[in-house]
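User: Let's play a game. I give you a shape written as tokens, and you guess the letters that built it. Ready? Here's round one.
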């Protein structure tokens, strides 16, 4: 008769003890939260609508995104500035390739939205919350000139919980995961070297101009501590204004993208990359561009509308004419999304998408054609289903 205790996992106990600790460590880093799909650590691109499109409700660490832009507009540069500004606000290390410090001084500042008011309201004590519990909407009737925005319900701010241990007790604080930025204001850079500008140097045609860039990145990643998050921003890749002519040689650019891919796999919990490519100079029909897409985890294309279409007002009316929507400024094509794992499982590409850029937001949404002018039923929208004054009898 054996008295040995059965159902005892010898090797599984150590693995189970590492799981919660790793989630707590990723959640304690500012601007990083686990993915709702597989628990992979994710960060924000600075654009909430782009975070939703990437599949993890954020940009998974250890991945790259290639943004292809048609024309000579700066919509791709706007996404890069949001990405860099989000990293500066969260305390991440931001590396910018090819441009100088003036590009960093143009980063947008955080907009003072309703999120600050909601965070103040959440920090109130219990007696203050009970003061106007029932007739809370009558509290602002005496405030003349408060305006309709003060009494309007504010949208919820996307936050990630960060757990800290203080005095033996576990306390939870709310930190914004994705901020809202104002393009008309400039971000005040904090003290410390959070922006690292890497210039492009060309020594000879036989030497790759990307070797000094890779050497600088490896030194920064090796010298930083493990919880530090790094963001690599590469605007206008292979642009003649920033790179020498031999940089577009396949033996140089493809080797550079292979090296970046190796860095992403080596620092899969610390590094993310977003870069833009001018498609007018390097169209998708060329073999070089297709190879660059294959070496990137995600590929999206921005196709701005013609300038002749933007001569009208910036808002369009929908339905019965009471609601106004901002006019779309271009199409968004998702050619490739980052996969969830090495076995596959990438998100669906979805329907046609458009983007709209305003002072405080960059919105990517599904494309819907407006109703025809002669179609009165479609212009009414949902107005037919609502009761009118004639239908109501008292």
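Assistant: Ready! My guess for every position:
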């Amino acid at each position: 008769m054996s008295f040995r205790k059965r159902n005892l996992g010898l090797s599984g106990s150590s693995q189970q003890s590492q799981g919660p600790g790793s989630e707590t460590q990723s959640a304690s880093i500012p601007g990083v939260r686990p993915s709702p799909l597989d628990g992979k650590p994710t960060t924000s691109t600075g654009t909430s609508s782009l975070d939703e499109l990437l599949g993890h409700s954020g940009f998974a660490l250890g991945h790259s995104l290639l943004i292809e832009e048609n024309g000579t507009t700066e919509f791709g540069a706007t996404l890069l500035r949001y990405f860099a500004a989000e990293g500066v606000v969260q305390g991440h290390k931001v590396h910018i390739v090819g441009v100088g410090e003036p590009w960093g001084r143009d980063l947008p500042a955080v907009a003072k939205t309703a999120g600050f008011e909601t965070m103040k309201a959440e920090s109130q004590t219990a007696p203050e919350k009970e003061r106007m519990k029932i007739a809370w909407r009558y509290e602002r009737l005496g405030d003349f000139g408060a305006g309709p925005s003060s009494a309007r319900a504010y949208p919820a701010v996307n936050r990630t919980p960060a757990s800290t241990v203080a005095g033996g007790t576990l306390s939870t604080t709310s930190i914004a995961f994705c901020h809202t930025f104002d393009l008309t204001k400039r971000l005040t850079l904090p003290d410390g070297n959070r922006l690292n500008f890497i210039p492009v140097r060309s020594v000879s045609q036989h030497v790759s101009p990307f070797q000094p860039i890779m050497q600088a990145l490896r030194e920064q990643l090796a010298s930083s501590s493990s919880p530090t998050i790094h963001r690599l921003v590469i605007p206008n890749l292979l642009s003649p204004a920033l790179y020498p002519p031999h940089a577009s040689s396949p033996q140089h650019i493809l080797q550079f993208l292979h090296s970046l891919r190796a860095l992403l796999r080596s620092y899969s919990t610390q590094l993310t990359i977003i870069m833009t490519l001018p498609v007018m100079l390097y169209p998708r029909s060329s073999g070089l561009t297709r190879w660059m897409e294959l070496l990137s985890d995600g590929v999206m294309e921005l196709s701005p509308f013609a300038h002749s279409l933007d001569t009208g007002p910036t808002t369009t009316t929908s339905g019965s004419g009471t609601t106004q929507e901002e006019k779309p400024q271009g199409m968004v094509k998702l050619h490739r999304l980052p996969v969830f794992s090495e076995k596959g499982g990438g998100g669906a590409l979805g329907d046609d998408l458009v983007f709209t850029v305003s002072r405080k937001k960059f919105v990517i949404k599904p494309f819907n054609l407006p109703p025809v002018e002669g179609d009165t039923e479609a212009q009414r929208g949902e107005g037919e289903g609502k009761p009118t004054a004639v239908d109501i009898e008292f």
